[in-house]
């Protein structure tokens, strides 16, 4: 089969699977690796975990929604092995509620419930992605999470919080992020999503690689 034929077949297969709702996970873009600074990100899992997954996401992104649940399940199943970090990458040029949903997550995070808001924003995405006033919808989610609404409102309206989100967006762009979700797994860049099982395998492979590297450094070749 010629190169052109293989390429065409690949495009057809991808198109068919995409229609069926499959999300692909691939190494893509440049650079392929980067030392990602996560000090301003929202974290779940131990700082000492051998595997760190950094997600640049947009809560109004359909692909992010599809990728989120399998990723969260895999991370939960590998608690002692992986830390998940979220950084904002709201694509406001095409997603009218991207910024307001990011602000809602920050406000929830300030009250210790970032990941609860993260989950709810994706679960309810189809209900708010096309409405003009997403902020009111997000406020309802905040109430359901039993947040202090005065604190919530103050955080959402705080310009420094929006500045933080935009700073993460600019930072992602500097790393070559140009789509969502983009993930860095131990500083290796990927785009798209995976099944729970694929995530678990990737995490296990990374743990094995870390152990191998550690063993090699302790027993250098003479």
UniProtKB/TrEMBL annotation:
A single GO molecular function term of this UniProt record: oxidoreductase activity
Database matches in Pfam families: Thioredoxin_4
Transmembrane segments: 7-25
Keyword Repressor in annotation: no
Keyword Cytoplasm: no
Keywords: Disulfide bond, Membrane, Oxidoreductase, Redox-active center, Signal, Transmembrane, Transmembrane helix
Segments forming domain Thioredoxin: 24-208
Family of this protein: Belongs to the thioredoxin family. DsbA subfamily.
Protein name, UniProt field: Thioredoxin domain-containing protein
Source organism of the structure: Candidatus Berkelbacteria bacterium RIFCSPLOWO2_01_FULL_50_28
Record lineage: Bacteria, Candidatus Berkelbacteria
